[in-house]
């Protein structure tokens, strides 16, 4: 009794003193009171579960590569006519009389990326031997279609050797793709960097950016002067209407251009072409990405590609023929612009990319041809590179227009951090 009474008295004293035992915290309050908060993670990839992943990048790259194959196989798209023979007459076992090792190498190497991209695009729905077989069949169908349509082009000759080498190259690429698919798409460091540096919905944009250095391959009158379509349209209209048409002169009139104006135009083309491509890349990056290094890598790859192409198409002495006073000035101005815009808001980067690309297109399509470049171009013999040149010319002309279409897509709001 005394112990119980004493305990009750102690309890009463505690209540009288106003001391209350601490109440348990609710889960939400406990979380709020925690002094340590985990760092926010990048938004989850909608296709990112713990299982195998499909690759939107591979599918977009496959579509772009198929379009390049179509253009290269049917270039120059003129003189369509029927030869009177069966379109499948080339499907025979007769050996070709005229062929070179270079042609065989180009056919095999040219279709190897197609096979690899087919396998990567089918992953994970088809893997291993099934993916290789499906890609091999796809390569046969694509190559067979290209050879069949060439029957109606006077400048092209379909052959069973082309079909065989193209299909073999596609099969070899499919085997390589099957061996690398899991590492590239599920476990590779490349995928981890892509997720860490770029937005979730950046797949199509990354394919577009990867094509920009290749768009510099075809010889152009101005550094980064892609999208020059009026001269080609003038040529097509002249042939169609059987009269001499110059759309550039129609737009400019009889107004001449001074050396200073020409130099300024070349500076604008180089600066805006480079800035437009780099800003398109920056629109796709996250805040923690090494933006300046990515931009420098893109521009450096474009310059190296252009230098190697100039050396290959002309002579090694002309490898740096693209370096002119106007190009140098435009390059420096473009670098200054990008240094200031590298960390600007993505909405501003996207809008400025549209403005610079449009300005570059306007200037490059209204300035007269560079006389020095025209004289250099006369020494260019396309020869064995006819197919490749057609694809390179097509890519160089359409890249700015595809970039503008991509930049104006409303889906860019998904890339905002």
TrEMBL record:
Lineage, highest ranks first: Bacteria, Pseudomonadati, Pseudomonadota, Betaproteobacteria, Burkholderiales
Composition bias type Low complexity, residue spans: 26-36
Ranges for domain VanZ-like: 63-178
Region (Disordered): 1-54
UniProt xrefs under Pfam families: VanZ
UniProtKB keywords: Membrane, Transmembrane, Transmembrane helix
Membrane-spanning segments: 60-78, 98-122, 129-146, 166-185, 197-215, 262-285, 292-314, 320-344, 351-370, 390-409
Domain of life from the UniProt record: Bacteria
Protein name: VanZ-like domain-containing protein
Keyword Transmembrane in annotation: yes
Organism: Massilia forsythiae
Keyword Cytoplasm tagged: no
